[in-house]
Amino acid sequence: MPHSNGRPRSDLTIRQLALTGFVLTLALVSALLLLPATASAQALKNTAGGPAFRINAGFDSRYRDGNWVPIQVTLHNDGPDFNGKVSINVPAPFSGAGNAATISKYQEAISLPTGAQKEVTLYVPFYFGTQGITQNITVDLLNTNGAKVSSQVSSLRSLGVNDIFIGILSDQTAGFGPLNALATSLPSQASSIITEPLNAATMPSIAAALKNFDLIVIDNFTTSSLNKEQLTALQNWVNQGGSLIVVGGPEWRNTLSPLPPSLLPVSITGTDTIPAGASLLPVGGPGKSGPQQSNVSDKAPSPVAVSVASPVAGSSVVHSSGSIPLLAQRQQGQGIICYLAFDPTLEPVTSWQGATTLWKGLLLRTLGDQLVATNLNTTTPKFSLYNNGNMDALLHTLFPSAFPATWLILVLLLGYVFVLGPARMLIIRWLKKRDWSWRIVLATILVFSLLCYGLALQEKGTSIISSSISVVQLDRPATNATAAHVTTYIGVFVPSQGDFQVHIPGNGLVQPSTNPNGFYTDRPRQQPTTILSSPNGTDADLQGVDIWTIRTLISQHDSQFKGGIIPHLTLQNNTLTGTVTNTLPYALSDAYVLMGSHYMALGNLAALQTKQVSISMLDNGSGQEMSLADQIASNNKVQPQYGPYNPYSGSSQTQTIQQRHMALLATLSGENAYYDCGTSPCRVAVKTITSNGVVVTTSNGVYSGGSPYQINGRDPLLLPGSSATLIGWADNLSAAAGNITINGNSAAREQEVVVQAPLDINYAGNINVPTDLVSSQLVDMQGDSNNLQTQFPGIYTMTTGSMTFEFTLPNIPNLHVTGLTISEPSNLAQVVTAMGQGSGPPIDANHLHVYLYNWQTRNWDSFTLANFSFSTNNTQPYIGPGGHVLAQFANQDSSLGTMVFSKPSLQLQGTISS
């Protein structure tokens, strides 16, 4: 019987069924795509008795906040055979003692037969965001099902921001009294000297853990007790910026012979004795710096046993007694090594009244600015673990703009509507069987539901994307191989909820990345990431991943690559010419040679290919005030933008390969990060200075536009310790990040691998050596923390006192120096004022008294800064043995106010005879 509206009731029922099926299909699609990928396992009950353990956290429970910390776990088993894991909870950054939030768990599998004893060391990153505070960490012993068998709590005390942490490798404990007593004579009264004895059992086997130390001293030590991994870690730590003091003396053979040659600035041949009255302190250091201290006695009280050596290539002798070098140094990679020929822990030196002064000079020479009082209100913080320079934002640009399979879902739903609508009506009219309508509806619901289910399963397994950005910093090539430090940022995009296991091959350190601003507080419900170390690599279990999210992991490791970058470059008549050869087994694309504020594009550099280089080092006024990243971007017609989330492309999803490369250069330069001071030279957030004054953004230290002005130091794209740098993108370099798998399957990926390599240069003809090729270091300062402070790295304020700097000229054979120019930045006072630092407008460097040490008369000659520089053509009296030039900046008139200046720069002019 017809319905009151004239339509058959059966047709209405069919429409209701179709509508219901459509809604059910939508619900099924959503439900299937949101299904967790895995189900959690049920934990079993713990077995009684069995294994026990004790822990030793950090270095005698001390560590430097924001670093990888060794946790030694000693286990023994008095019960039945046991298999399980050691697990350590890592609190979220800035969690403090009252917040139990966990960002990650670090685990290592163990196997303990009955009666066995085993020791394992886990390296764990800790960043509580506090200094000088004791925190508790929890170590759990888990069985194979993840159930807790036992647990222990250990304390870790972070070092204070001004504490100097020194690791000492020595077979003796006596003789370090003058070093331990040094804190009372340091300019910063807040500083403390903390020494930590190390041996073969406590010496870390990875360089990242050694970064807890400001300095390491090797003195009268059985170095052969260290294994290969520990020696390699020490070498890598120095290459990455560590400071090392190696001591010779009568026990030099036991101490120094087992060291790799790269860790010795000298070649030792034997022993000798220097007579009483011999000078033990170098000129320029404490007790012998400036006109007020030139007559301070530094004589040995009695004969001193020394090791006899000669300097190796690249090192310089700072102080000698006759022909015997007593103090030599060398820049090794990004770090520094000092060699002392006599043992300061033995008599007669240890009881000598100048022993503390000797140690003070060594610490100033190796640590420099770390001994200067820090203005905590103005110094930019540095986050060594979690501030990744905004690599997260750049990594996200490698992922597609639309979620995987969105178009497939739309096609599926449109097809469903088409079949239920026009297609169904056409079939009924063609067959003239109205009762087939409900059959078509039910069949359509069944077929499309099965299609949705299959699509969901397929997409959950194949639409996972793992993209990565690797930064490979090469060392100088050795025989057929080059050491490298590799940092890889791995992004994992998942289209569904659940748990995902990311396997990263190799023996690297892995940690989850967090927002350097929010530090994990923006995702409080995110479950901790579990990091499990194994002989085959590292597994990162991402727990409770939300649908359509990107999770980032950071992996770092030290590696060896076949071949290297071989330079044959010469600086002559203000032009860098020569060749670079790529002996690596892979090609480099978009390669550049960088030197000073200049660069040359090489294009593609194939494996075993050699390319010519020609770079004019003359400033032409067309961009040298810009950073190298900005110059390269500008010449490639890419507009630079500044800020924490503004790579060089306006749209993060439409970047070309060139735009991605330019964005990565900007990120490596620190131009897209909140904080830009740390291991790289400081780049203050200030626009180019114009006649209208300085424009800055002081709320968060982010560039507001324009070209950032770099204050004192090398461009961040240049590797420290090298004359020039090659940078390029490696083609098909799977060795950088390895074959990363997710849930056992290889994922689709985009990979960017940028390579930085140091380039050494030769000199010929007329030369004008750029300021950043003349190394300088702070070697003495006089004044307390109220009168001498550092505002930013390499930028100081002084009311009264003095600071002495030592320049080391390049070791150039047959060089005749015709001119020396020492200069200061002209805008420091404006920058400090604009940044809101200090209680009043500072006085510029032109008001400082400047002295150069005259090696011929042994006096300090006075000079005047005019327009922030001074020059002299009478150069020979001021260049001492080893190519050292000493300059002191001083002020004794407190009525002038607070003066601001930076570490001075020296430009060298000269000719090289044939």
UniProtKB/TrEMBL annotation:
Keywords: Membrane, Transmembrane, Transmembrane helix
InterPro entries: Class_I_gatase-like
SUPFAM superfamilies found in the cross-reference section: Class I glutamine amidotransferase-like
Region feature Disordered, mapped onto this chain: 279-301
Domain of life: Bacteria
Transmembrane annotation, as ranges: 407-428, 440-457
Protein's recorded name: Uncharacterized protein
Organism: Ktedonosporobacter rubrisoli
